[in-house]
Amino acid sequence: MKKTLSTLFTLVVLSIPLSPQAAETPLKLEKAKTALLVTDPQSDFLDEKGIAHGLFAENIKELGTIPNIEKLFITAKRIDMPVFVSPHAYFQHDHNWENPGALQKQLLELKVFNRKDSVYATDLRDTGADFLTQYKKYILDGETVVTSPHKIYGPDSNDLVLQLRMQGIDTVILAGLAANLCTDSHLRELVENGFKVVVVKDAVAAPGKEAYQAALVNFGLIANKVVDTKQAVKLMTGSI
After folding, report:
1. What is the 3-state secondary structure of the chain?
2. Which site among 11, 66, 72, 168 is 20 to 30 Å from 143 CA-CA?
3. 131-136 — which CB contacts under 8 Å span 24+ positions?
4. Would you say residue 85 has pLDDT above 90?
5. pLDDT value at position 15?
6. Which residue, 178, 189, 197, 168, is CA-closest to 65?
7. pLDDT one-digit tens code per residue, 152-170
8. Structural contact between residues 131 and 71, judged by C-beta atoms closer than 8 angstroms
9. How confident is the prediction for the chain on average, in pLDDT?
10. Predicted structure pTM score
C-alpha cells in the first residue's frame, strides 16, 4: 500500500508542468484595478557602469530587458494605468546589520544601491541607486508611485502593499530585477496578500541562465499568468 501511494505521489509530482507555460489561467484585466509594478529599475543593475551590471549583462541583452521595461512604462502611461516602482536602497545604518544573508553581505560590501542620506535624499541623483536615465521621464513624472525602499528582496519591508490597497489595485503587471530574487519575492508576497499577478518574463533579468530558468519555474507555478512583453501590452490595452 505504501509503495502504491508513493508511486502515485511521484506520478502526480512529475505531471506538474514546471515551466512558464504552467500559468495559463484565463485573465481579463480591469484597468481601474490594475497597475504596472517595476522592481529595482536602477543603475547599479541596468546601467553598463553599474556595480552589479556585469552579473545581469548577458541576460539583459538576451531578453531585451531594458527596452521591454520601457515599452511597459510607455503603454501604462498612454492608457493612464497606475505605475508603481519598488526600489532598493541601503543607508549607512544598514551597514551595521549583524546577520545579513550571503548575498546581502556582498551587496553591502560592494555598496550596491548605497545611499548616504536617508532623510532628504540629496545624494540619490546620478548614483547607482538612482533610476536608469531613460526611465526617469516615466518614474519622475509626478504620477508614478515610488514606494519606500525594500531592504532584502520582497516588499515586506516597504509600503508597497499599503500603496496598492489605497489605490484600489487588485491586479499587478510585474517586471523588473532581479528575476529570481526581488521580482520573485514581490510575486510571492503579493500573491500571499491576495493580489492577482501577471509576470512579464522578458522584462526581467537574472544573474545568469540558471538563475533565470529557476525564476521561470517559480513564475509559472505561482503567478496567475506569465507573458512576454508583446502579450503584456495586449493585455494592458485590452487587445486580448
Report:
1. CHHHHHHHHHHHHHHCCCCHHHCECCCCCCHHHEEEEEECCEHHHHCCCCCCHHHHHHHHHHHCHHHHHHHHHHHHHHCCCCEEEECECECHHHHHCCCCCHHHHHHHHHCCCECCCCCCCCCCCCCCCCECHHHHHHHCCCCCEECCCECCCCHHHCCHHHHHHHCCCCEEEEEEECHHHHHHHHHHHHHHCCCEEEEEEEEEECCCHHHHHHHHHHHHHHCCEEECHHHHHHHHHCCC
2. 66
3. 131/41, 131/42, 131/43, 131/85, 131/87, 132/41, 132/42, 132/43, 132/46, 132/47, 132/66, 133/43, 133/47, 134/66, 134/70, 135/41, 135/69, 135/70, 135/73
4. yes
5. 44
6. 178
7. 889 998 999 999 999 999 9
8. no
9. 84
10. 0.81
The C-alpha cell at 61 is 541583452
